[in-house]
Amino acid sequence: MTMAVGVPGLFYMQKIFWAFIGAAIATATIANAINKILCYQRISARKSPDAAKPKSAFFRTHATLAAIIREFSSYSIPLSIKNWHIYLPTAGPVTIIVGYVVLIVVCCFYRLNPKNYLEFEDIGYRSGFIAVCQMPLIILLSSKRNIIGLLTGMGYERLNWLHRWTARCLLFTVIIHLGYWFTEWDKFDYAMIKIKTDKLTQRGITAGAMLGWIVFSSIAPIRKLSYEIFVIQHIISWFGFFVTLYYHIPGENRIWIWLPLGFWAFDRFARAVYMLVANLAALHKNSSGFLSCKATFEPLDDTHTRITIANPPITWQAGQHLFLTCHVLAPFTAHPFTIASLPKDGKIEFVVSAKKGATRKFFKYAKKVWPSLPSVQSSVRGRAVLIDGPYSRIRSMRQFDSIVLIAGSTGATFTVPLMRDVVQQWMGTDSTSHKRTDFLTPAGAVTRHIRFIWVVKKQSTIRWFATQLSSVIRDVEALREQGHDVAVEISIYVTCDETITSGNSHPNGDRTGAHVRVSTSRPESPLDEKKDYTTSIAEVSSSTSATKECCCTRILTDEDAITALCNCASKRQQRDSTSSTSPSLQKSLSSNLVDLDIIILAGRPHIPNIIRKTAELALGEMAVAVCGPPGLVQCTRNAVVGISDDRAVHKGTGAQGIYVHAEVFGYA
């Protein structure tokens, strides 16, 4: 339809919408390209002690802008209501969504008067055209093989929240579209007649209702009830929405239906090709049978399973994940798990927490088939599995002067490979993953110092990565003996293990493995105690259930201080003899597990102190990578923001930047 004189046409406003979207993607692409250039320059100049420090005027300006943007976008306000602690959404994503909503509103109402009844029809048409042209963006943001992610350097999982919010914004646009049409019809008591007699209106209402259902069923509490069911109904609902929308919109607008369908089909085709190449045994020399991947399932404790795929047919980088499918145990489900090993290991390894659904079935199967005697472990036969991936993108940790890695429980599957990858580069044993998947990044590492923090509930958890952690310590000691200026500090915080939190047994005991310190900072007065507790809410992973189950929840502000033990035994009854793992057995399990230089502490880490100490010694930009519960992740982000602001990073003080990468537990 034609608009009034001086009012932009409908197709013109669609172009304006995509001009802004294209500009945003182009800006993110340029930022990604600059990061790639920085990485190449730094690692190429790794022999210089300040290789990670910006030198040219352009990169100094870039570092200042990056610091300002990070400080603004990463902070989240913590809220405490009685014993319920939450973080508000971070400013960065909120700003993006607000900007997107403003763009939609401007495109819907530009040069039109929303209060003028005579222009209601024009607004109805305009908002409908703006609604339908959003479809390609929504589908692009949902794709695993993501074109936007490829350009911007972001994995699909880091864009998925934007996919959900753009869909909600689409519903908002549709409500504007429906609202103005119905308001106009209702003025003449014509609304019900249109609904009963006009097929175009009926299709529009049906499409709007289906979109409303898609958005409603995608809300986190509903989505997480059963993620497998959600995915199936989400795809069915999406197809139904597209069909009804196709017959509702005019023919000249159907390009906005075919484009997203094309993007979706390309994503599915690309994923199918990758899966065939990775999983067909005929395409790999060392594989037999039909499928190339066989997985073994090993129970690690009461709630975790180690899944191992020997001789994997693919390569990957530290920090990436795969989708794993085992149709024999959990048919027609695929779950993403972080790869806990490196290509050099010759195996893919996952540590999976048994929740419900497929992960619970994996754990039950592991308990059933895994032999109790090590001598017969070789007889365990692997189950055929399908893999899809690897996925995820992360800036190379090797380009940063110092690194702080923080993990909670199974979050170590993300941080341990990152640490080992850097140490591997120090040793000069370049991973094949960098040759195949990151050809723009040369071998070697700028990094001089790694600080590794792991928060666990029980000492027995340490054995998950005991071999890898001890190997890292030995390799670094060998490098230092050869004169290399590198260092790794590893601290493991135990929060729920009575063998080191009980006042009846000293944690050092007869232990000959790692050093165990039980250090806590006691407030000197009731007022200080209240202040310390309030501060800890904002700085420690308050979301973990350990705060309710464990008594040792105090913050260790100084790892070198040795003070009173957390006396958990006096606060709750000892576990009875029927417990699956007794305290004495836990103590024996943790003995001789890790190297002497790995410190085990009872309590919780003071994240700001750890990051600040590392930042004060960094000669160039440093990185913080965190993986764990939402509370731990966001308190780490807030700590980085606070330290960056206090030290006036790249604002004339000489303090260097702090890059933070966050991975939160859970996929749904």
UniProtKB/TrEMBL annotation:
EC number, UniProt record: 1.16.1.9
Official protein name in the record: ferric-chelate reductase (NADPH)
Subcellular location: Cell membrane
UniProt-listed Pfam families: FAD_binding_8, Ferric_reduct, NAD_binding_6
Organism this protein belongs to: Amylocarpus encephaloides
Domain of life from the UniProt record: Eukaryota
UniProt-annotated stretches for the region Disordered: 502-536
Membrane topology: Multi-pass membrane protein
GO cellular component: plasma membrane
Entry-linked SUPFAM superfamilies: Ferredoxin reductase-like, C-terminal NADP-linked domain (SSF52343), Riboflavin synthase domain-like (SSF63380)
InterPro entries: FAD-bd_8 (IPR013112), FAD-bd_FR_type (IPR017927), Fe3_Rdtase_TM_dom (IPR013130), Fe_red_NAD-bd_6 (IPR013121), Ferric/Cupric_Reductase (IPR051410), FNR_nucleotide-bd (IPR039261), Riboflavin_synthase-like_b-brl (IPR017938)
Keyword Transmembrane recorded: yes
Domain FAD-binding FR-type, residue spans: 287-397
Keywords tagged on the record: Cell membrane, Electron transport, Glycoprotein, Ion transport, Membrane, Oxidoreductase, Transmembrane, Transmembrane helix, Transport
GO biological process, one term: intracellular iron ion homeostasis
